[in-house]
Write a structure and sequence with these properties.
Strands 1, 2, 3, 4, 5, 6, 7, 8 and 9 form a nine-stranded mixed sheet that branches. The protein folds into two domains: 95 residues, Alpha-Beta Plaits, CATH 3.30.70; 135 residues, Pseudouridine synthase I, catalytic domain, C-terminal subdomain (Alpha-Beta Plaits). It is globular. Helices cover 22% and strands 27% of the residues. The chain is of the alpha+beta class. It contains five helices and nine strands, in the order E-H-E-E-H-E-E-E-H-E-E-H-H-E.
Amino acid sequence: MPQRYFLQLSYKGTNYHGWQIQPNAISVQEVIEDALSKILREKIAVVGAGRTDTGVHASFFILHFEAENTIPENLDLVYKLNSFLPHDIAVQKVWKVSADLHARFSATSRTYKYYITTEKNPYGVETSHKYLKPLDVANMNEAAQTLFDYEDFTSFSRLGTEVKTNNCKIMKAAWTVEEKELVFTIKADRFLRNMVRAVVGTLLEVGKGKLTIQQFREIIEQKDRGAAGASASAQGLFLVDIEYPG
């Protein structure tokens, strides 16, 4: 009988076309499956906690996989995987879980952070969004608080996405100033495709003075992606936490 495992990893998404396997493009999922299959000497398929887009990063990510053969206790799978994997993917932990625990469907919340560098930084080109002009952070925070008043976030969802509902429960949404960076943290029970980047892009319009807080609210109420601002660039976005029952 197959045994299910959870695996915790982190990755820099710059060189990948997102998490999910796709034709004619390298993905994080493909690289992980290839490494696991070679080490465990059986075909391994992995299921991730979610899908990150091209160029998006994860400092905390969970996947599950099932192995037909028992993994030997003396096999240091974390060490072995990190030896196989490229420099921009790192495994932190692997552990057995019950067969009904699912990396994606069992998750109760996910947290993202979006990083904006407020001065020229040669080291942050691939891991933050550069915006050097002044932003009204107080207004951006006030607008972010309106997210708690809504559940339907169609206005921030990628068009043509097949989902049963566009409802999400926002648990946290706030901007903080951290040294030379502006950081947006958002936590919810689930997210729509491209949702965080669309929210950030629209909040930036508030910070630039191009949208009022009331107009931000009206954008949500219109349930129209065309009403919202352009998506913020991918390189500033990190998946930073996923929570599970217990």
